[in-house]
């Protein structure tokens, strides 16, 4: 499985949520609403989730193993940094 596209939508308001991302895999399958969040130890991703009847949030789609999660997170955060750098240079 290859991630063939990463689309970043920045969040305008202040807060821990920095962006919402969509990824396309093998140009055939897309996952929307992956969140880029600023945590105490830096940026990380949260997979799309929904609130269950018991009030807990459950992932709708997620990687099965930590190596895949790390690969997805690395690609998303690299693209996020690229988008942020481009925005900074356009404002100057």
TrEMBL record:
InterPro entries: SpoVG (IPR007170), SpoVG_sf (IPR036751). Transmembrane segments: none annotated. SUPFAM superfamilies: SpoVG-like (SSF160537). Keywords: Cell cycle, Cell division, Septation. One of its GO terms (biological process) is division septum assembly. Could be involved in septation. Belongs to the SpoVG family. This is Putative septation protein SpoVG. It comes from Mordavella massiliensis. The lineage of its organism: Bacteria, Bacillati, Bacillota, Clostridia, Eubacteriales.
């Amino acid at each position: 499985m290859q991630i063939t596209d990463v689309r970043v939508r920045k969040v305008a308001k202040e807060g821990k949520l920095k962006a919402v991302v969509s990824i396309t895999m093998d140009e055939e399958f897309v996952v929307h609403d992956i969140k880029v969040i600023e945590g105490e130890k830096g940026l990380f991703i949260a997979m799309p989730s929904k609130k269950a009847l018991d009030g807990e949030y459950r992932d709708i789609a997620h990687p099965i193993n930590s190596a895949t999660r790390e690969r997805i997170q690395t690609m998303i955060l690299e693209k996020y940094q690229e988008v942020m750098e481009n925005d900074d240079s356009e404002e100057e």
